[in-house]
TrEMBL record:
Protein name: Putative Phosphotransferase
Organism: Nitrospira defluvii
Keyword DNA damage tagged: no
Xref: InterPro entries: AGP_Transferase, Aminoglycoside_PTrfase, Kinase-like_dom_sf
Domain Aminoglycoside phosphotransferase, chain residue ranges per copy: 38-287
Top enzyme category: transferase
UniProt keywords, alphabetically: Transferase
GO molecular function: transferase activity
Source organism, top-level taxon: Bacteria
EC number annotated for this UniProt entry: 2.7.1.-
One Pfam family cited in the UniProt record for this chain: APH
Gene3D superfamilies: 3.90.1200.10, Phosphorylase Kinase, domain 1
Length: 366
């Protein structure tokens, strides 16, 4: 079993050739199209770039995804574990084909220019779930999140069974080495890089032992299809539907992972009562498909422990993106994700040891 590091920052991408794009739109699409404009879109923390292609005579548009390296798909930007299958296909297109069979809302791929590393995709618009909820009233916010939960239930149930050996996600999993790599990522960047010094050996040993215990708990659960970044900036509100993007790092993991990613989000904080109701909706949705959890208290404990792992990893990742990719925009979200961790550490007496040895090094946990 191997665990690989995320890809190093790529050199700046040269802009795609407008003439090539215009010709592709005119000759390779499943419809007749004439390009009238190409607008760069704000990027995320990835090495990909995105553009919107305006089309003549229609308000519809296309999204152009530009890969950092046409062959770069062989290296995930996230650490992966257990990838025994030979990677001979772009993970985005591989996972997309699988998800299209589940009935969830994912973008249609109109054309993939392999030579240039350009993908021509359906446009879900610019409104993320995070933006849609920013000024929404309570009823609208809950309604949007209920839609996101319905999509997640479908993603998990139909994405997991029947198994799809041709989908790369089924050859990667959140096992103990990967979960521990993510914990270590937090220690490296969320503590050592932030403080400029390592933890004391006794604290380091105690914290790693507690992390190991959580990793074994999560890895020991039944494995389901996991998007891995199912949060409010990867869900697009497109009219009456919610579209799912950024799924290329999908793998197998615990049923709580995507739920914790959505409800303990780095970018929007939900009231506890809303979270409780959405967790119940998720469990009701699984039960409707014959996959219910008899012990809901046990599920909630697992959800909270998953949130600890996910949010610590996010905090470390945000520092990494600042220090290594020179992109500081995620630093402002660190207090929120560590706030979730602090509340969960206080909620469970069995985590007192972890809190005792970790909090002195993290101001937000004190």
């Amino acid at each position: 079993m191997t665990t690989t590091n995320p890809a190093a920052p790529a050199a700046p991408l040269a802009p795609p050739d407008p003439a090539r794009i215009a010709k592709t739109v005119a000759t390779k699409m499943p419809f007749r199209g004439d390009m009238t404009g190409l607008t760069p879109l704000a990027g995320d923390a990835s090495n990909r770039r995105y553009f919107r292609i305006a089309l003549k005579g229609t308000p519809s548009a296309l999204i152009l995804m530009q890969l950092a390296d046409p062959e770069g798909f062989k290296k995930s930007e996230e650490a992966v574990s257990g990838a025994s299958a030979q990677i001979a296909e772009l993970p985005f297109t591989n996972v997309l084909a699988h998800l299209q069979r589940t009935g969830v809302t994912v973008p249609q791929l109109h054309y993939y220019d392999r030579e240039a590393g350009l993908l021509y995709l359906e446009d879900f618009g610019d409104l993320t779930l995070a933006e849609a909820c920013r000024d929404a009233d309570h009823a609208r916010l809950v309604a949007l999140y209920r839609q996101a939960i319905d999509q997640l239930v479908l993603l998990q149930v139909k994405g997991t069974k029947p198994p799809a050996p041709g989908c790369i996600a089924f050859h990667r999993r959140f096992d103990v080495p990967l979960l521990m790599w993510e914990f270590d990522h937090f220690l490296e960047y969320g503590i050592v890089a932030r403080l400029g010094q390592p933890m004391k050996p006794a604290d380091d040993k105690a914290v790693r032992a507690e992390f190991q215990r959580i990793a074994e708990l999560l890895a020991g659960q039944s494995q389901v299809f996991v998007h891995r970044d199912y949060h409010s900036r990867n869900l697009m509100v497109d009219g009456s539907r919610i579209g799912i993007i950024d799924f290329q790092d999908a793998l197998m993991g615990p049923a709580t992972y995507d739920l914790a990613s959505l409800l303990k989000d780095a970018y929007i904080e939900l009231d506890d009562a809303v979270v409780d109701g959405l967790v119940d909706q998720f469990l009701d949705g699984l039960a409707a498909h014959g996959q219910g959890w008899a012990d809901r208290a046990a599920f909630r404990r697992l959800f909270d422990f998953t949130s600890i792992q996910r949010n610590l990893k996010a905090a470390g990742r945000f520092v990494y993106i600042d220090r290594v990719k020179h992109n500081p925009k995620f630093l402002a979200d660190i207090p929120r994700v560590l706030g979730y961790v602090k509340r969960n550490l206080s909620k469970y007496p069995e985590l007192a040891t972890l809190r005792q040895h970790l909090a002195p090094y993290v101001a937000e946990l004190q």
